[in-house]
Specification:
Blueprint (H helix, E strand, L loop, with lengths): L2 H20 L14 E7 L2 H18 L2 E7 L1 H14 L6 E5 L2 H7 L7 H6 L10 H6 L10 E6 L1 E6 H7 L9 H11 L20 H10 L16 H17 L9 H9 L5 E5 L3 H4 L10 E5 L12 E7 L6 H11 L2 H10 L17 H6 L4 H9 L25 H16 L5 H15 L7
Parallel strand pairs: 1-2, 1-3
Antiparallel strand pairs: 3-8, 4-8, 5-6, 5-7
Helix pairs in contact: 1-18, 9-10, 17-18
Organism: Streptomyces africanus
InterPro entries: Bact_solute-bd_prot1 (IPR050490), SBP (IPR006059)
Keywords: Signal
Length: 451
């Protein structure tokens, strides 16, 4: 690739970053909260929708604090959040930051540290939070910047009824090669796809599971000198494996299906296996699911590593520019509390309780009974995921399992995910997708190489 093209790629990446920070095309957010109200910006996942429904009756009635929610799809909320926090506009007091944003936002001074609030709020019981989530929400300065609303790992779900019908058995700790073999054998049984996997572009969509495959196959995005490694044999093998698996035994139109679409396909009974987030198990076992009671759960498949599951959390952080930090903490303390989990259990159902964040939930008999099909694997995923600091084979200059903990990854990862989605759609080869991605990754890390 010529140097001029590398330069153009770098300029394009910066242009996309500029759009994110400027919020081009987004409506202006609402005015900031007051002493009697706070504004909350959040991804619009089902647990957040339950939270919104319960807030007025239980939180506002007790505290007098009104909560104004802005719930958006994941890609939209990230764009809005990046703009809001970069400007420190103060329109939103609280936002649903993730394990990706917290290290970046805290280093840039965009989040308010929470240590003093935690110390003063004895009822919150910080020791009950899973330590690996606390670590992921702690800045480089050692201060805590967010509290987890829920946490998740990844696991493999499979149809026990179909496996019995075909005389197949699922290993207790499967490898990816075993999964591929099982997908080939069971594909088409009762009209199902052998396995359903995310194919939709997005660094939080198809690239999240793909990165776990890359890690366990021995691949890495960069070597220790920040030279891109997306065309290395290990990286190629991992991506080719994923693309071939979903093309040969996956669901139709996989390149247009993200985690919600794949979940819908599995719940409708169209998939024999499914690799995704533990937090989605409650939807699989919900009333109305065509596969309720028919599903088994095992750890994330692996290859060269012993563990391969990702670690993730949607957490509540306070914008540094907020004028309502005390009220914001009251909201966070309530929304991330044991008491709130119990409230959801009573009002919505224990299978909908935000999970993966507190140890105590897994010793709660009501949750154990309601989540009996999956809570053990959920607990294992929350406590025994791959190591975010060393998730694969050999050293790497970045942290993260399903993502890279660098600011450039939001743009780079999305661009690479689009190339891989095109390979899943059959529009180009895996080799061509990775050659283009290699150039993008090399350009994105130029500053780390001192260029």
């Amino acid at each position: 690739m010529k140097r001029s093209r590398l330069a153009r790629l770098a300029v394009a990446a910066m242009a996309v970053t500029g759009l994110i920070l400027s919020g081009c095309g987004d409506a202006d957010p609402p005015p900031g909260g007051s002493n009697g109200s706070i504004n909350v910006l959040s991804v619009g996942n089902p647990p957040m929708q339950d939270l919104k429904k319960l807030t007025k009756k239980y939180f506002t009635a007790e505290t007098g604090i009104e909560v104004n929610y802005t719930l958006l799809p994941e890609n939209d909320v990230r764009r809005r959040m990046d703009r809001e926090f970069a400007r420190q506009a103060g329109h939103y007091d609280v936002a649903s930051v993730s394990a990706y944003e917290v290290p970046i936002y805290s280093e840039r001074g965009w989040l308010a540290p929470l240590d003093s609030y935690v110390k003063a709020d004895k009822d919150f019981d910080q020791d009950d939070i899973f330590p690996n989530l606390v670590e992921s929400l702690t800045g480089a300065d050692g201060r805590l910047y967010a509290q987890p609303f829920y946490g998740e790992g990844s696991f493999l779900a499979y149809r026990k009824d179909l496996f019995r019908k075909e005389g197949l058995s699922m290993p207790a700790n499967p490898t990816w090669e075993q999964v591929a073999s099982l997908a080939a054998e069971i594909d088409g049984t009762d009209g199902t796809s052998g396995i359903c996997l995310r194919g939709l572009p997005g660094w939080g969509q198809n690239l999240t599971p793909i990165n776990t495959v890359v890690n366990t196959f021995g691949g890495a995005w960069y070597d220790m000198e920040w030279n891109a490694r997306l065309t290395s044999p290990e990286f190629r093998k991992a991506v080719r494996f994923y693309v071939d698996l979903v093309r040969e035994h996956g669901q139709p139109n996989a390149d247009r299906m993200g985690f919600l679409e794949v979940l819908d396909a599995f719940v409708a009974g169209r998939c024999a296996m499914w690799y995704d987030a533990t937090v989605l198990a409650s939807s699989v076992e919900a009333d109305g699911s065509a596969v309720k009671g028919k599903v088994g759960y095992v750890p994330a498949p692996h290859d060269r590593t012993e563990k391969a599951g990702w670690l993730w959390t949607w957490a509540w952080g306070i914008q540094k520019a907020s004028d309502n930090k005390d009220a914001a903490w009251e909201f966070i303390s309530w929304a991330s509390s044991k008491e709130y989990q119990e409230l959801v259990g009573r009002e919505v159902g224990w299978t909908s309780a935000p999970a993966g964040n507190r140890k105590s939930l897994y010793s709660n008999p009501a949750y154990q009974q309601a989540a009996g099909a999956w809570y053990r694997q959920e607990y294992r995923a929350a406590t025994d995921s791959a190591d975010p600091k060393n998730p694969g084979v050999g050293p790497r200059p970045y942290t993260g399992i399903g993502f890279l903990g660098i600011p450039e990854f939001a743009v780079l990862g999305t661009a690479v995910s689009e190339q891989i989605a095109a390979a899943i759609a059959g529009q180009q080869s895996v080799d061509k997708a990775l050659e283009k991605s290699q150039d993008l990754a090399q350009a994105a890390a130029a500053k780390y190489r001192g260029e």
